[in-house]
Amino acid sequence: MATFKDFRNNIKPNWCPGCGDFSVQAAIQKACAANGLEPDELAVITGIGCSGRLSGYIKSYGFHSTHGRSLPVAQGVKMANDDLTVIASGGDGDGFAIGMGHTVHALKRNIDITYIVMDNQVYGLTKGQTSPSSGKGFVTKTTPDGSKENPIQPIRTALASGATFVAQSVSSDIKQLTAIIQQAMDHKGFSFINVFSPCVTYNKVNTYDWFKENLIAVEDIEDFDHTDAKNAMQNVMEYDGLLKGIIYHDQEAKSYQENIDGYLDQPLIKKKMTLENETFDELMAEFR
Fold first, then answer.
1. What confidence tens digit (pLDDT) does each residue in 122-153 have?
2. CA distance 234 to 158
3. pLDDT digits (tens, 9 = 90+) for 39-51
4. Which of 256, 94, 128, 103 is nearest to 202 (CA)?
5. Are the CB atoms for 13 and 22 separated by under 8 Å?
6. Rounded-to-integer distance, Cα 97 and Cα 270, Å
7. What are the two backbone dihedrals, phi and then psi, of residue 97, each rounded to the nearest 5 degrees?
8. Start and end of every Thiamine pyrophosphate enzyme TPP-binding domain (predicted)?
9. Please, what is the Cα angle at 54 between 51 and 60, to 5 degrees?
10. CA 119, 80, 187, 57: dihedral to nearest 10 degrees?
11. Residue 49 near residue 70 (C-beta atoms within 8 A)
12. Number of other CB atoms surrounding residue 120 within 10 Å
């Protein structure tokens, strides 16, 4: 059985010292080992940004896609080979800006993959501009007078889009994050995890201390029910999205694959994909 170390490779991450992404990577590796996966049973698909490097730092199948496009690739990988556990990952810019259209449609489509967003509320790779989740008034080089926009609400968006597994954590709580990722991978459907992953270089507002003071564990909220979407949304709105834990989990909903007749009997990778000459000639004849 694979251990945490079996998901390591020889590539040293070049994130800034103290970056929350180190802990997210470790949590993924721990969760995969705890769930009994082998490296060749996992595919990690990433987009562009600091977090996009993740697919090269984990020993598994990996694909570094273009900006905002990790989800289309990840869904394609899963549809072609249902035997793989597929994790898509990216930052708040990758998932909530250029990739937002893909995010919303993936949330409602419910393909059986896990999507982990490393939300540092700033564009770190391009040296500190506002991202979709930056707070109103956030000061950067391109917004010296403070951002004039309201930040996107990832958890509210996920719930409103029909997601069947919604969770949020912070990279400093690696024990909780690991447990959440384990449950997300076990969920038969699309699992969305927003992880606050502080940027120690370009975001001096949303720091580790800030999240420690402001995040509220769902276990500490009386009558919180993560099986009730309405209850989850009400609490998300009441606490302005600053919750951590499993916020919503629908164990009854069918995944996209389960709704396609015959799919699970023989995914694409197991099908004979050759085209006989006679069939090809018949198809070409239609265009004459």
1. 999 999 999 999 999 999 989 999 999 999 99
2. 14
3. 999 999 999 999 9
4. 128
5. yes
6. 36
7. -115, -95
8. 48-195
9. 160
10. -40
11. no
12. 30
Q: Contact 177/168 with Cβ under 8 angstroms?
A: no
172, pLDDT greater than 80? yes
Give the C-alpha separation, 96 to 91, whole Å.
8
- Using DSSP's 3-state secondary structure scheme, residue 283 falls into helix
Q: What angle is formed at CA 256 by the lines to CA 171 and CA 262, rounded to 5 degrees?
A: 140
Dist. CA 223–CA 9, nearest whole Å = 44
CA separation, residue 283 to residues 268, 273, 274 (Å): 21, 16, 14
Q: Up-side HSE of residue 96: CA atoms within 13 Å toward CB?
A: 26
Count of domains observed in the chain: 1
Report the CATH number at residue 78: 3.40.50.970
Q: Distance (Å, rounded) from C-alpha 45 to C-alpha 43? A: 6
Q: How far is CA 121 from CA 96, 152, 170, 274, in A?
A: 11, 10, 13, 47
User: What is the span of the domain harbouring residue 129?
Assistant: 4-285
Q: Which two tokens stand for residue 200?
A: 């120690």
Tell me the torsion sign for CA atoms 272, 63, 111, 98: negative
